[in-house]
Design goal:
Strand 1 and strand 2 form a beta hairpin. About 75% of the residues lie in helices and about 0% in strands.
């Protein structure tokens, strides 16, 4: 009996070692590239660290200064929140509208699906941001088109009242990823529900709001979480279009761009680490609130 137990123990141990061996590359990468740097940044957030000097412990001074005596932090938060509040709902609404149209069984749907998804692959690149800056510049293609209609054409990028909205439009243009997810969700809606609703005289609009939307709420919730987190982390478009300044007059100063300036322009790495952890906490709070509120409007099978 003892020999049999020893054999079972060895087999289990051998299986566990094999599992950990396959898991080891991921564990090494996670500890060395994610968890370790995160702990290091948490420590640095309580220090005065200028990269070329030794970190000096200052306690919570960085956090106190950020929350009480940093007007650019306030500007960055305002710009980022406004960007999130505009870009996320508009992107999701546009993605859902396109997904509903593609779900009608159009000829060549695979082609259109690939074309519409392409901006999501390219939209975060530096090249697209440069193209966007040229498109909305004083002599860009958009102004040339508006000029043909007889309207005045401002410099959208250099005007504080309009500059942020060009980035919102760029975000909406990258609707391909949530569109694909919405399309997959629409394919799961039972067709017999629409047939029964049609027999009862329900219009297409009523079917959309009474059948499609309620059944899609888990998909909407998933896309909302993912797209909101991505919007909070947006960096490349604002960096390229404003030449890394966040201008004009901080109108495109995204939170991540301000964090970059503090870390790699002003070399206040400890201060930037504190900014980063405030962003992590903010995203965590938003996610917790979203999951808490989901019980009120997200409908699952039960």
């Amino acid at each position: 009996m003892s020999a049999r137990s020893d054999s079972l123990l060895r087999n289990r141990l051998s299986g566990s070692l094999s599992g950990y061996a396959f898991l080891a590359p991921w564990l090494i990468g996670f500890i060395s590239l994610t968890f370790g740097p995160a702990l290091a940044s948490l420590y640095l957030s309580f220090t005065d660290y200028a990269v070329i000097s030794t970190p000096y412990w200052v306690g919570a001074d960085n956090y106190v200064r950020i929350l009480t005596d940093d007007p650019r932090f306030v500007s960055a938060v305002q710009v980022t929140l406004w960007y999130v509040a505009l870009s996320v709902p508009l992107k999701l609404a546009f993605a859902l509208a396109v997904a509903v149209a593609l779900n009608k069984g159009l000829a060549g749907m695979s082609f259109f699906r690939a074309i519409f998804y392409l901006p999501s692959l390219l939209g975060g690149s530096v090249a697209i941001a440069i193209l966007w800056r040229q498109l909305f510049s004083r002599d860009g293609a958009f102004n040339q088109f508006i000029g043909l209609l007889g309207y005045d054409t401002p410099n959208w990028i250099a005007t504080p009242e309009y500059s942020l909205y060009t980035l919102v439009v760029l975000s909406i243009w990258q609707f391909g990823s949530p569109m694909i997810i919405f399309l997959a969700g629409l394919r799961q809606v039972p067709t017999d529900m629409y047939e029964a609703a049609s027999l009862d005289g329900a219009s297409a609009t009523r079917q959309f709001f009474k059948i499609t939307l309620p059944l899609l709420t888990p998909i909407i919730f998933f896309n909302l979480i993912i797209q909101t987190i991505d919007a909070f982390k947006a960096f490349t478009p604002a960096f390229v279009i404003s030449d890394g300044t966040g201008g004009p007059v901080d109108s495109t100063l995204f939170y991540t761009l301000y964090l970059y300036q503090e870390a790699f322009v002003n070399f206040r790495m400890g201060y930037a680490s504190a900014l980063a952890w405030i962003l992590v906490i903010a995203i965590g709070v938003f996610t917790a609130i979203a999951f808490r509120s989901a019980r009120l409007w997200v409908h699952y099978d039960d």
